[in-house]
Amino acid sequence: MEVTSLLHNASLILDDFQDDSPLRRGRAATHTIFGPAQAINASSYTIVKTINHVAGFASNKCIQETTQKVMALFQGQAMDLFWSYNGRCPTMDEYYRMIDNKTGQLFCIATGLMLDSQKRIPAKASASLDTFTSLLGRYFQVRDDYKNLTSVDYTQQKGFCEDLDEGKYSVPLIYTLETQPDNIQLINLLSTGKKSGRLSREQKQCVLEIINKSGGFAYTRVVLLRLYSQISYALKELESSFGSSNPEMKVLLELLRIEN
Q1: Where are the alpha helices (H) located in 243-260, listed in sequence order?
Q2: Which carries the bigger pLDDT value, residue 206 or residue 24?
């Protein structure tokens, strides 16, 4: 857990700076307190420290795999930044590939380290774990993006629809742009946000209304419900593979559930 916690915190510091986010969990983001230079340095140091920590207890194969997964984290972030910087809307498949790298690999690092510490793991159990972590990564990110545009709690923690200020593309917005490619109002609102770096509250409300009318939020809820069902099934397969139940994970999944 220490490894994934360190990597996660380091990635959040970089992510907030790269997205120019002023808040993180309702408090000032690191770069707004210590400045960009120290934030980048601290994040880079933490990532190197984490890999060095892994090298102290993991097998050579696991060290190599962990390093590759960390590289995949950066590749996923690069895709996300590229779309935002260039105002290019990704396809759904591209978006999911980005998630699999940016978010999914963090879960894979945790499970990879756990598997490495065990002497014998059935092949079926390893495959079940890969499926579970991949689905969990997708659900976690799609849910986070959805909540950013719809949750009052997220507004208090990160600001009102901050993803729109950052030019981020998420499932609700991608769906809307795919089903309404000629919606001039939406295209101009997104263009305005890219040029100014910010959208007013009223402009964001317009974007939300367009997404809602297009069915973007309803579609995203369907996606989340489907992913949740797949995760629940994957957990049952995982429990069967290891021959024991996992009540803690069931509680966690229940806390992450999105009601239709």
Answers
A1: 247-256
A2: 206
Question: Helix, strand, coil % (nearest 5) of the chain?
Answer: 80, 0, 20
| C-alpha closest to that of 41 among 4, 13, 83 | 13
Which residue(s) pair with 27 in the sheet? 24
Mean pLDDT, range 131-160, rounded to an integer? 91
CA dist., res. 126 & res. 135, Å (int): 14
Its CATH architecture, for the domain 58-256, is: Orthogonal Bundle (1.10)
Mean pLDDT, rounded, for 37-51: 97
CA gap 69, 54 in Å, rounded: 13
Tell me the mean pLDDT in the region 141-149: 96
Neighbours of 118 (CB within 10 A): 9
Distance CA 255, CA 128 (A): 22
Question: Shortest CA distance to 59 belongs to which of 123, 116, 1?
Answer: 116
Query: In 9-123, at which residue ranges do the beta strands (DSSP E only) sit?
Result: 23-24, 27-28
pTM of the model: 0.92
Q: What is the mean pLDDT of the chain?
A: 93
Distance CA 69, CA 86 (A): 26
What single DSSP character describes residue 117? T
> What b/e string do you get for 208-237 counting C-beta neighbours within 10 Å, with b at 16 or more?
bebbeebebbebbbebbeebbebbeebbeb
Domain boundaries, the chain: 58-256
